[in-house]
Specification:
Order of helices and strands: HHHHHHHHHHHHHHHH
Radius of gyration: 21 Å
Helix content: over 70%
Shape: globular
Distance between the termini: 22 Å
Number of helices: 16
Largest sheet: none
């Protein structure tokens, strides 16, 4: 390999990391409130933990579909920003906000009246009632949360993700103290338990949103985009563009998040301890997934900007660099899951609780399976990010939906209940579905590069 080629690769690795690290940090900080909820509710009580697992599973299914429209803003802004087209940047963001508002109005009733849905899915009456109580408070954070996602796409596409990271760090710090106050009744606050965790999530979401809005309105660099100019006016052309690009993204993300939520339902059939172990293992895996998601966002921005500049050699090098970095990351994380599973599980549980040993024993097995699917999960989300940078979302939606629901869910049920492997079998189905999606998406991306670039 020539020295110039080596230098070019090094440059792309550096650029990906410079953009990717703040994006990884912002994704991690965005789930910190829910991670904190899980840890503190695990200390508070197993029933409260299990109820929050059910509630947040539904919340994230609903939230993740809406965030597809917000994510669609990212490649559109990246493409326009590469051409210094301020008008199209503004139009993309504005219609992303429009769709987020409409979507939130439509889905909030699902969260407010969710108990019957949980009962239909075979969940315990007490858990279903508590989960609805949680969502009747936390559900109101969906609109500010989606606005954050739109602004996150805006700042990321401009390669300024540190702003998003800062806002979410402040929100995450506030969440720790408010959870400690409202769940356990410290600092003179009432002891609200599960309801306290829900209230805290709403408050911290608004804190992060206010910070981002402040940058958009009062910082001269970003206020020059006048994002909220004529915000009340419908821009039908860009409304349709954001919707057409975002809807497949939302469905794709629904297919994956729904895969994990469906396994939570199956775990509820196994038992409360299995559901609690599943919730902890999912939180740990979800935390590490933020690393891959940050790299995927970096891939989307860099691919979108390369296409905007018609720099197709740069597109190829950027793609290779982000895939290599992902493989390195997933390998390290898989080793950590295999070496320290008990330590990771005990972060979420009281050592004196009577059910802790059984929950930990189940969770250790689940983390072993999580180590298996790290490579598949990391690669599939990063390649999805590259495809979104090319504004290719419809075919990936079909490929992932088939992999997750046509293969992953049936295999989870077969392994878990037909073969009688229980919690381990359910997670083995996850491995199969994610691995197949990774293979399909890799072939799709390589094919597009060969055909068009």
């Amino acid at each position: 390999m020539s020295n110039s080629k080596v230098h070019s690769y090094r440059s792309h690795y550096k650029s990906t990391l410079v953009l990717g690290f703040p994006l990884i940090g912002s994704h991690i900080m965005q789930i910190v409130p829910h991670l904190t909820d899980t840890i503190m509710l695990g200390w508070y009580g197993v029933d409260e933990l299990a109820s929050s697992v059910l509630a947040t599973s539904l919340f994230f299914v609903v939230f993740i579909v809406g965030s597809g429209f917000a994510i669609a803003v990212m490649p559109m802004v990246a493409n326009a920003a590469a051409r210094d087209d301020f008008s199209n940047v503004r139009r993309s963001v504005r219609m992303g906000l429009w769709i987020s508002f409409i979507y939130s109005v439509l889905v909030i009733p699902i969260l407010l009246f969710s108990e019957q849905l949980f009962l239909i899915l075979g969940q315990d009456e007490g858990l279903a009632s508590n989960a609805q109580m949680y969502l009747r408070i936390a559900g109101w954070s969906i609109l500010p949360g989606l606005i954050i996602m739109v602004l996150k796409s805006f700042f990321s596409a401009l390669e300024r993700p540190n702003i998003v990271l800062f806002s979410l760090v402040i929100g995450g710090i506030a969440n720790v103290f408010l959870n400690y106050a409202f769940i356990f009744g410290n600092f003179g606050m009432p002891e609200l338990g599960l309801a306290g965790a829900a209230l805290t999530s709403v408050i911290t979401t608004f804190i992060s949103l206010i910070i981002l809005l402040g940058y958009c309105i009062f910082n001269s660099h970003y206020s020059s985009y006048i994002l909220f100019k004529n915000i009340w006016r419908l821009d039908l052309e860009y409304f349709n563009d954001v919707f057409k690009l975002g809807f497949p993204i939302g469905v794709t993300m629904l297919a994956e998040s729904g895969l994990f939520s469906a396994t939570a339902v199956m775990m509820g059939w196994v038992g409360t301890n299995a559901l609690a172990a599943h919730g902890i293992a999912i939180q740990i895996s979800g935390f590490t997934f933020m690393i891959y998601l940050g790299l995927a966002n970096a891939a989307t921005v860099r691919a979108g900007r390369a296409v905007g500049r018609s720099d197709y050699e740069g597109l190829k090098l950027a793609s290779i660099s982000v895939v290599v970095l992902t493989i390195i990351a997933v390998s390290i994380i898989a080793v950590i899951f295999l070496i320290f599973p008990k330590f990771l599980m005990m972060l979420f549980l009281s050592p004196t609780h009577i059910d802790t040993p059984l929950i930990v024993s189940i969770g250790v097995l689940l983390l072993a399976f999580s180590a298996l699917f790290q490579i598949a999960d990391g690669l599939q989300v990063v390649i999805l990010g590259l495809l979104r940078g090319l504004q290719d979302t419809a075919i990936p939606m079909v490929l992932t939906t088939f992999s997750y629901w046509g293969v992953g869910i049936p295999f989870s049920y077969i392994f878990g209940f037909v073969f009688g492997w229980g919690a381990s079998g359910i997670w083995l189905g996850l491995v199969v579905g994610l691995a197949l999606a990774s293979i399909f998406l890799s072939f799709r991306f390589v094919r597009l590069l060969k055909l068009h670039y």
